[in-house]
TrEMBL record:
Name this polypeptide is given: NIPA like domain containing 3
Lineage start: Eukaryota, Metazoa, Chordata, Craniata, Vertebrata
GO cellular component: membrane
Highest rank taxon of the organism: Eukaryota
Transmembrane intervals: 34-54, 75-96, 102-121, 133-152, 172-194, 201-229, 241-259, 271-293, 299-320
MF (Gene Ontology): magnesium ion transmembrane transporter activity
Pfam families found in the cross-reference section: Mg_trans_NIPA
UniProt KW keywords: Membrane, Transmembrane, Transmembrane helix
Keyword Disulfide bond (UniProt): no
Membrane topology type: Multi-pass membrane protein
Annotated localization: Membrane
Length: 368
């Protein structure tokens, strides 16, 4: 009788034990999510400060009589140190949190740049004019903060260890192989239109950047996760997949920077920032969801709220970058039409000599 009673007590104690382990696992997942999100926010914030410090250094040297090169100033080296520190924080964040959470947090750098730009404005505005001038930036920052909060709150909680076996298993899975086939075909088509048909539309260029960037973040997470496990004592550097991922990470990052450089030569930086953020984030989240199965086991409500957070962050970044001033093209201080007659006469003589030497017609000299 006592034996049956004790057995019944043991059976009654089993459910609370399993539920408590599930709660502890969920809290551990949330803790890792929080660590990864804080590292990403810190990294993007520091990178934004570093870029503005280096920009300030260039502007100050250009507006002064200081003959030193920019790399001989303490400000520029401080910016470089902060940039490396920030990039290290972003890199480490991929080892703790899902890729779908870390990628959209790059909106923090846009928010920080907007706030720094407003703080260090040298013009004096009246309060009414100031609010009217920067109302879009304020609204955009608010929306981006709300979107970031939703992203962190409703992000997926998948925390698979990035061992060599797991990375290899994901790499050869049929959903990712199918995704890679579609991405390669799309990339080749876009590259053909860009190179052969001179399709220099910003969407075409930034789609190339986004497709490369999706592979960059996938490989970054694998490399960062395997490095963290190795530091913790579970050596992963003897797996060939680590070096395959590392080479792919470096190669895609280099080509991504090359396409971004070409885009910056043709389009405004604010337009590149907004369109690039939207395209890169969308494609990177898709790649992470397919490769790392980020949203497996998530309920519909969490997925919808996460998507809503992405949309709000997209709108916030668009409003922030839309309010930035466009670069003013260089204009000479002296118009050629306002030059004295003697200078015009000299120009006509020089053009006449050039025309005679090249056997060119010079019947339009008076138009000069």
């Amino acid at each position: 009788m006592d034996g049956s009673h004790s057995a019944a007590l043991q059976l009654q104690q089993l459910p609370p034990t399993s539920s408590s382990s599930a709660v502890s696992e969920a809290s551990f997942s949330y803790k890792e999510n929080l660590i990864g999100a804080l590292l990403a926010i810190f990294g993007h914030l520091v990178v934004s400060i570093a870029l503005n410090l280096q920009k300030y250094c260039h502007i100050r040297l250009a507006g002064s009589k200081d003959p030193r090169a920019y790399f001989k100033t303490k400000t520029w080296w401080l910016g470089l140190f902060l940039m490396l520190l920030g990039e290290l924080g972003v890199f480490a964040s991929y080892a703790f949190a899902p890729l779908s959470l870390i990628v959209p947090l790059s909106a923090v750098s846009v928010i920080a740049s907007a706030i720094i730009g407003i703080i260090f404005i040298k013009e004096k505005w009246k309060l009414k004019d100031f609010l009217r001038r920067y109302i879009l930036s304020f609204v955009g920052c608010g929306l981006a903060v709300v979107g970031t909060y939703l992203l962190v709150t409703f992000a997926p909680n998948s925390h698979e260890k990035m061992t060599g076996e797991n990375v290899t298993r994901h790499l050869v899975s049929w959903p990712f192989l199918l995704y890679m086939l579609v991405e390669i075909i799309l990339f080749c088509l876009l590259l053909y239109f860009y190179k052969e048909k001179n399709a220099n539309n910003i969407v075409v260029i930034l789609l190339l950047v986004a497709l490369l960037g999706s592979m960059t973040v996938v490989t970054v997470k694998a490399v960062a996760g395997m490095l963290v496990l190795s530091i913790q004592g579970n050596l992963q550097l003897d797996y060939p997949i680590f070096y395959v991922m590392f080479v792919c990470m470096v190669a895609t990052a280099v080509y991504q920077a090359a396409f971004l450089s070409q885009a910056s030569q043709m389009y405004d930086s604010s337009l590149i920032a907004s369109v690039g953020y939207i395209l890169s984030t969308t494609i990177a989240i898709t790649a992470g969801a397919i490769f790392y199965l980020d949203f497996i086991g998530e309920d519909v409500l969490h997925i919808c709220m996460f998507a809503l957070g992405c949309l709000i962050a997209f709108l916030g970044v668009f409003l922030i970058t839309r309010n930035r001033k466009k670069a003013i093209p260089f204009e000479p201080y002296i118009s050629m039409d306002a030059m004295p007659d003697s200078c015009l006469h000299n120009r006509q003589l020089l053009f006449k000599r050039y025309s005679n030497s090249r056997n060119l017609p010079h019947h339009n000299l008076e138009s000069l």
